[in-house]
Each structure stands twice: as C-alpha cells, then as structure tokens.
Amino acid sequence: MRRHLKKLDARSRFELMRGKYKGPVDVLVRLGEPPTKQHREALQSVRCEITATIGPVVSITIDSTQLRELADLPFVRSIEMARPLFPESR
Questions:
Q1: Is residue 50 part of a domain?
Q2: How far is Cα of residue 67 from the mean position of the Cα atoms in its chain?
Q3: Is the pLDDT of residue 1 over 90?
Q4: Which domain holds residue 65?
Q5: What is the rounded end-to-end Cα distance, in angstroms, of the chain?
Q6: CATH code for the domain of 16
Q7: Does residue 2 surpass a pLDDT of 60?
Q8: What strands lie across the sheet with 57-63, from one edge to the other?
C-alpha cells in the first residue's frame, strides 16, 4: 500500500483506488492540534481551499490529484472524504 494512502480512512482509500474521485473533492482533515498560521499556509501551498475549521478538524476542497501532497504534510493525522448527509427518518 502506498504510504500516502495510510492517512485516508478505509472507505475513502477503497473508493479512491476504484477511481471514484476525480477533480475537486471535499475532505475532512484531522490535525494534531488546531491549525496555526503555518498550518494554513502549508495547506494552501498544496492548493487546498479551507472551507471551515472546528478545533483540530479542517474542512477543505482539494483536487483529488493533490491528496498525496496533502497526506505528506507532517501535521496531517488523517484524511476522510466528505459524504452526503441525509435527514433522519422518524
């Protein structure tokens, strides 16, 4: 298994290897701590668009071809592709 794929959750890794993701994707990135200015600059250097931040979790949009560079950032702990949410049924 490629080193950069180890930071992706199992479902995202499987779907990525099957070619499901092409072009821009929404991703949740877990960091070791809330992002600093240096973390934000490093994320932007791999062409991430930061859309939200809650504590150590950052929501971004990134081209799927840049996932390796994202995973190579030392402060990135895990990466999870965003999934659609559905309302709960009663």
A1: yes
A2: 7
A3: no
A4: 3-81
A5: 42
A6: 3.30.70.2980
A7: no
A8: 49-54, 57-63, 24-31, 76-81
> What's the rounded Cα separation, in Å, for the pair 34 and 26?
19
Residues in a beta bridge with 52: 59
Contact predicate 90/53, CB 8 Å? no
The DSSP H or E segment spanning 17 is helix 10-17
* Chain-centre distance for alpha carbon 41: 15
User: Between these two residues, 61 and 13, which has the higher pLDDT value?
Assistant: 61
Rounded to two decimals, the pTM is 0.80
Structural domain total, the chain: 1
Q: How far is CA 7 from CA 44, 74, 75, in A?
A: 19, 11, 11
